Amino acid sequence: MVIPPPNHAADIRQPLPLAEAASRWSTPLLLLDHHRLEENLRRMRRRAENAGVALRPHLKTAKSAHVARLAVSGLASDGIAVATVREAEYFAAHGFRDLFWAVTPTRPKLDRVARLIAAGVTVKISLDSLAVARASSDAARELGVKFPVMIEVECGDARCGIPPTAPELLELGHHVAGDPGLHLVGVYTHAGHSYDHICPEALGVVAREEGQAAVLAAEALRNAGIRVQEVSVGSTPTVSRGEPVPGVTEVRAGVYMFSDCFQAGLGSSGYEDIAISVLATVISNRPDQGHLVVDAGSLAMSKDRSTERLGGKGDVGFGRVCHHTSQEWIPDLRFTTVNQEHGIVKASSPEVLASFPVGSLLRIQPNHACVTAACFDAYHVVDGHRLVVDVWDRVNGW
Amino acid sequence: MVIPPPNHAADIRQPLPLAEAASRWSTPLLLLDHHRLEENLRRMRRRAENAGVALRPHLKTAKSAHVARLAVSGLASDGIAVATVREAEYFAAHGFRDLFWAVTPTRPKLDRVARLIAAGVTVKISLDSLAVARASSDAARELGVKFPVMIEVECGDARCGIPPTAPELLELGHHVAGDPGLHLVGVYTHAGHSYDHICPEALGVVAREEGQAAVLAAEALRNAGIRVQEVSVGSTPTVSRGEPVPGVTEVRAGVYMFSDCFQAGLGSSGYEDIAISVLATVISNRPDQGHLVVDAGSLAMSKDRSTERLGGKGDVGFGRVCHHTSQEWIPDLRFTTVNQEHGIVKASSPEVLASFPVGSLLRIQPNHACVTAACFDAYHVVDGHRLVVDVWDRVNGW
Q: Final residue of a domain: which of B222, B257, B292?
């Protein structure tokens, strides 16, 4: 007896209504609304054009070559950012030749990057310490390649990176510039703390600080005689809401492609822009408990509760429950609990509960697109809000 | 250019020291300690033997045929429980012939179960409503199979299931018993709310209520002339801490195989019994922030914060940071934050921080084994606490 192919592996030769798709593949399914995706991409493209900076789409959220091709279409360059070496390998195999891997490398990962570079792919690596610079330099010498380098600058995120005014920045800059195995391309920063700020004014401040930190670092290096071509910044909230800072050459963002309930709550987008959702089936309807149970639990939605911080209407529990075809929000259903394969959805009244009997389909917008999408290995692509038109793969893991 | 095989796919022909494994495969890696696994299995086996009930290992946590074979070894039966149809298909393909799928089915999943049944595999399905019973009956008739059925009983968990004293129980029992497409095997319940109780006395009460609810339901059905063979209960906390209730024929549990920081905090096991951990590499060490950054973020650890409820020493942040070979806890390192590919670990002093330079390996015990394991598609099996001896696959998805 052989293992059947994955749940999603069936061929799709003609568009299928959602309900038929849910009878062909088992729920939970990760849906991707093609129209909303295109709109989100178009909006960000225009924003970057207006700001006069290059846009480097970050594929850490989508992890899909299909999405990447759409994301770079209409841009001057097809450069993308990735978060794992596995993504770098996957996108290189799908023809992408300009990658920026925006997470600090380890030695075995440098070995893998070197194989990509030897095959003609540009993979810029991220450094924020002499220790990693030396390890990268050793790897470059042993493997016979030269690593293009972006130095990571800290802009208030308090994670990785060197503060733009720290003497370590110049020390690292001189080291990289003078190392035969490394080639300093530029500096970059990421205002991950933009996710902590839910008021537009504060977001504007963080966006400005993000740009200024990167520009300040670039200037400090240039004043020390070190050549810096690229000044790259970005996070979906700052790129969506901030004003461009002169001197920034490139913005990176990823979540904007799909958006999610947290981004909508922050104001980076509207709820009607959210392009991914989880299609789930009601498997139990319990008037005694006042709730229904769907077959999307923590392994489908993740345990992310980022919207809790938004409070009020912004806090959508474990996901925003919508009608499965119209994608219209159902405020009378609240997704209160996830267990491994069970999601518990409270109904505001017995009448509401009765209107979603066992077998009903629901479409749930996630709190956080990156972690929910990572629960799945494929997208069921929906067009016209009703028809499943394709199945696109994703690359998870490291 | 083709996509290289997954990070873990390399053959392993002889045991490798952990550090060498981490230079061969890229971190984060999911490690499984073979010795601890065997001890956890042996302990639960003996507990079930002493209680005089059958043990049906639940493979929802491990999702691995290798682990399943070890889990049933020494038991009277090789029956297992699963949480998804994909698991049922996978374990059937690996030779398992007695499966209980302990989550309510939907129609497309019944189609897949029917194919397994037609191939000679027993797959008991779970019902808690007439609606699903009728859908199952329709499917049985159309597909020419008979579904063995376990009726789900509610025991205080407030999720799925019929309360043992509710009239709906007898109604459903009569329906299933009289339906030519269904065969009533027994009743089952799951005290998922045992996870809410952190004091041993309360856990004992929940365990007793779990057993009593199932036995009460079985008696109610038998008094109505309906044959009930199996009375199945279980959750790792109740099976680990509770006393057997007469009339219960079978216990199910899954997390006990691996355990985790939440189970250890509850007292289901000790921290030294935790069999899985995430091997991570320090990629940044920032004296200015007082923290180090590891390459295990939310996509490797999950966003589970279940240990928060334990408070005090039981609350280990996003995972309990240990030395990579000894597995000894490092109380001076606290895993405070996860971003997608970054984990932030605060050090209690500059000296502690300095002792974990960039490139150091750390081994992190997860809060919740089920969701952390689901981030990976393979186990790197460690023996003698130091040597990687094998790579075992896992089956994720639906």
A: B257
| Cβ-count burial B240-256 (b if 16+ within 10 Å, e if not) | bbbebbeebbbbbbbbb
Q: Does B340 touch chain A (CB under 8 A)?
A: yes
User: Are residue B28 and residue B106 in the same domain, yes or no?
Assistant: no
B132 plus B242 within the same structural domain: yes
- DSSP 3-state of A233: strand
Give the residues across from B282 on adjacent strands. B294
Of B375, B332, B133, the closest CA to residue A303 belongs to: B375
- Give the pLDDT confidence score for residue A19 in this predicted structure: 86
B304 contact residues in A (CB cutoff 8 A): 298, 303
Interface of B with A in 210-269 (CB under 8 A): none
Residue B350: burial class (beta carbons within 10 Å; 0-12, 13-18, 19+) = exposed
The answer to whether B303 contacts A302, with C-beta atoms less than 8 Å apart, is: yes
| Reported confidence tier of residue A347, pLDDT bands at 50, 70, 90 | very high
Q: Which of A240, A275, A287 is nearest to A366 (CA)?
A: A275
- With cut-offs at 50, 70 and 90, classify the pLDDT of residue B346: very high
Q: Which domain holds residue A287?
A: 16-32+275-393
Is the domain of B281 the same as that of B253?
no
Does residue B3 contact residue A89 with C-beta atoms inside 8 Å?
yes
The CATH number for A317's domain is 2.40.37.20
B289 in contact with chain A, both atoms CB, cutoff 8 A: yes
A39 domain-assigned: no
Q: How far is CA B88 from the centre of its chain?
A: 15
Residues of A in contact with B117 (CB under 8 A): none
Which tens digits make up the pLDDT trace of B196-236? 877 878 888 899 999 999 999 999 999 999 999 999 999 88
Which A residues in the span 49-68 are in contact with B, Cβ-Cβ below 8 Å? 60
* A160 to chain B, closest Cα gap in Å: 6
Q: What is the ipTM metric for this complex? A: 0.96
Q: Do A358 and B159 touch (CB under 8 A)?
A: no
B136 touches chain A (CB under 8 A): no
At B273, phi and psi to the nearest 5?
Answer: -95, -10
Q: What is the pLDDT of residues A88-145, one digit of tens each?
A: 999 999 999 999 999 999 999 999 999 999 999 999 999 999 999 999 999 999 999 9
Separation between Cα atoms, residue A215 and residue B177, nearest integer Å: 74
Taking CA atoms, what residue in B is nearest to A105?
A: B283
Q: Looking at the complex, report in whole angstroms how far the Cα of residue A12 sits from the nearest Cα belonging to chain B.
A: 17
Residue A95 shares a structural domain with residue A156: yes
